[in-house]
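Record tRNA modification GTPase MnmE, 441 aa.
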Amino acid sequence: MTDTIFALASGAGRAGIAVVRASGPDAGRVLSVLADGLPAPRRAALRALTRPDGTTIDTALLLWFPGPASFTGEDVAEFHIHGGPAVIAALIEALMAEGLRPAEPGEFSRRAFAHGRMDLTEAEGLADLIDAETEAQRLQALAQMGGALASLYGEWREALIETLAAIEGEIDFPDEDDVPEGLSERAGPPLQALCASMRAHLADNHRGERIRDGFTIAVIGEPNAGKSSFINYMANREAAIVSDIPGTTRDIVEVRLIRAGFVVYMADTAGLREASDTIEAEGVRRALARAESADMRCLMIDVSRETLDMAHIAMLRPGDAVLLNKTDLGSAVLAVPEGVASFAVSVTQAVGLQAFNAWLDGELVARLGGAEAAPLSRARHRQLVERALGSLEEALSLLASRPELAGAEVNRAIRALGELTGAVDIEDVLDRVFSQFCIGK
Ligand SMILES: Nc1nc2c(ncn2[C@@H]2O[C@H](COP(=O)(O)OP(=O)(O)OP(=O)(O)O)[C@@H](O)[C@H]2O)c(=O)[nH]1
Ligand SMILES: [K+]
Ligand SMILES: [Mg+2]
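=>
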């Protein structure tokens, strides 16, 4: 028999109210024991919670959700008790005494998934909603939890199952008059249309993943250009050591910012030069790697130096920025590559930085802001859509010559989409997804 589980569903620590939730076949019996009878389904009831020996636990507001119309699809009881640690402990003890066990992380959601209350992407959306710290994250998670990705992937999968049936019909009952081109004519266009949808879904500049995981910026430049000073200004704290000694920063120092409603990770890096020792060389290597992988690069140039750092401009791409720093000591004009923004600033005098920030916020909104369609939000989604697309491209190329091989490829694509939504159940995928949840969800 399935265990009946419980967990504190509200945050830990002292609060006005704490919510403890129980789910499973024994939830009703235990609720009835402690509250002296079941409340009416889905109606709040104020009751005394009493141990079987007659001693009182608390006065509580109780909710009874008989399955399957509950969060998990099982019988669920909710205890809204006073939020003191001793009250919570007393209720937990009473639940354990009745044979209930503490839930594993994500176990409530996993049961909801197992009972068909949500698909895997909706469960991920729920986890993201609980973790959401910005408006963009909240909206994205809410849409995903509401089934935006589930319905898209589900529709693709349905269409593929239909196409597969057509292909398999062709293999099993080859019509004398029906030349192989007949199959290409029937199965080709829907496969092509699906490939186009998948390509468009993937070609979103990683918008959803950046909203969820953060947009990354690498601050790079020669030693003493003012990179650490700049990152401290952006973070509004002394995150990195600033000194007039070139080569001060050796490791990557990352700060987390919220700008224009998006999470941004800005990385301070070691000054780029011929390193004087192995540690600095490693720092420079890390700086270059980060510059390569970041979503945006900000190149700091010290305009007070006799020879301006022109060497690193080649690392910039459209959408990046040059910060001409220390304009309190000098000035310079510099030709920047097409599509690269340029700002004259003095970090120590806080000059020109508002213009940079306004530009940055505009860039974030332009790159991550509201497109209509729901974006994929995890690397897991990207990998599986890519795998499905690869199989379909293969299937298209085999359709005319080897329909049975094309069918196998379509099957592979169906399986990839099934892994996305959890329609094919793969224990290790589920373990991975649900283990990232917090306890009580
Ligand atoms: N006058 C002036 N000095 C600045 C400005 N910005 C930074 N500095 C100074 O320049 C020196 C180097 O600043 P850092 O922020 O440590 O430079 P960095 O690019 O991080 O240097 P490394 O970590 O060594 O690569 C410090 O003495 C700063 O106070 C500026 O706008 N004007
Ligand atoms: K320095
Ligand atoms: Mg530094």
